[in-house]
Amino acid sequence: MGDYLKALEFYEKTIKIKEKAMSSTDPDLALSYNNLGGVYHNMGDYSKALEFYEKSLKIREKALPPNHPHLGNSYAWIGAAYHAMGDYAKGHQFYEKAHKIREKALPPNHPDLGGSYSSMGAAYIAVGDYAKALQSYEKAHKILGKALPPTHPDLAVSYNNIGQVNQYMGDYSKAVQYFERALQIREKALPPDHPDLGGSYSSMGAAYNAMGDYAKALQFYDKAHRIFEKALPPTHPDLAASYNNIGQVNQNMGEYSKAVQYFERAHKIREKALPSNHPDLGVSYSSMGAAYTAMGDYAKALQFYDKAHRIFEKALPSTHPDLAVSYNNIGQVNQNMGDYSKAIQYFERALQIREKALPSNHPNLGDSYNNIGQVYFDMGEYLKALQFYDKAHKILEKALPPTHPDLAASYSSVGGVYNAMGDYLKALKFYEKSHKILQKALPPNHPLLAESHLSFAACHEKMGDYAAALAALQGTFEIQQRTLEEGNPAFASTYSWFGKVYRSIKDYSKALDYFEKVLAIDRKTLPERHPYFGLSYTHIGDIHRLLGNYEKALSFHRKALNIQENVQCDPTARATTYINLGETYREMRDYSTALTYNQKGLEIREKQLPKNHPDLAVVYHNLAKLYLSTQRYSMAMKNIQQAVEIAQEKLPSKHPHLLDYKETYEKIRKKM
Questions:
Q1: CATH number of 480-671
Q2: What's the pLDDT tens digit per position in 386-413?
Q3: pTM of the predicted model, to two decimals?
């Protein structure tokens, strides 16, 4: 029923009676110690659990022959405690001890032998060795298939385990097949409101959530939740987990306020049901932190992540992988806030824990390298970013099957660096590698495929291939229309790129329409000082400039700077606003103000971007036009030559920007 304090009280009374009435080596006393350890285990007090499991083991070692199955059970429980504490090597040692005893003591088809293989499967999952985990679970399944009737609930558990490994390996359709087999058994074997039936629906929900089919995920999580509400007391931890699951799907759908409501319900249950330092309370705070991060409310996100971290520090050993996850979360918020040095510090702490706690090719190590790479990417240190992305990729290639979505994400990250460096052809190659994996691994409407189309669109827009960019954007938009509700934050990126492409092909009314759609989504989903507002305002301002509405243009650019100069954000975004302001003032013939803003923008871009980046060519071209207008022809020529040189190196020969630069060059040449 999840009432651990009552269970604790009962077992402690039982032990006091037995300690007085029985011999100190009585196996029945060992069983009571084991039960008490189990309660502490469920309460998240793993060191106390270990203490009682070891007391139980000492009695059994004295009272029982060395190959007795109960000794195997003791070793298995101690293994589970070390596993929960994040000491996977020790956990594995005890699971193997348990397994050796069971192999000797039990017939080859005994269900407990299957349980032993299942425990080792869980241990292999923890260290990221999914192939070995699958082998162990399949061995367990063969034994259980022979030993048990086809509708036995333990067979359902076995199917569920195999499904989970397939999910970790990114084979979601296989995972669903195994979860469905488990569900079919439970539907036949169990009453309709049994919690294990809810567990099956939850597994199905998790698989569909990973597949990006959020509507189906919600259906299954809702079925699970209705069962848990009937079958469990209102403060049971499994009910809290159910609220958390529903919250996560709502978060993925961009329904952040709904997500927070569900996370808060989960948290209230855990506060009542669990001790104040239970790791699951930390999970609740982390979930709320993630929701506020997605909403752009970084101050609140940090508060919740900090609460979670304090619990994990008290409840877990200093090298527990969950502590690394906590450092990661705090690092990501600092990264989003633009505090890159702090972000790197937290990501490095996470990496240090993972290097100690996990094998060298564990996917989570790849995740750590990837996170550090992303910070260097945001800082504009692209070569450093590539080094870390490369480390991450090498690990993921060894640890994951070749069609795993995380491998696709790794290729996409590398593509993003080359795109930012202005090497668009290289970027496209990596985006194509990523896209091929996603097409094999995911259903055609998965949000990650929409993001993949968006990457292509961004690259094609930069290369001046606007037809290809629009086609890719249409692919993104069609997936989002099928899978997301109108107004979801994911649409904002799509609309923004539509706006950029239509601006490039000089369809300014369409561009303005799309940028205003972005702003409408921002207003519904983000706090008013979020950095994304700065981007939206400057895009709208630039369209008003192109339409000749200079006062409106200035008004929007000032709104953008009011955010970008006062909150932590990507400096290149602020540079874009300065450059747009410079162009507005140039067209208004306020040349001194235009020069000031263009120079501010240039200073940031020269600091953040490689010397031959196409975005630098844009500023050099603006300055060339400005100097041409003020009859400073030698300065104009110097800047236009820089623009042309970069464009000839980095852009296709018929790119509109290169043609514009050459035209300006001719105008300046004729004046000299």
A1: 1.25.40.10
A2: 999 999 999 999 988 898 999 999 999 9
A3: 0.80
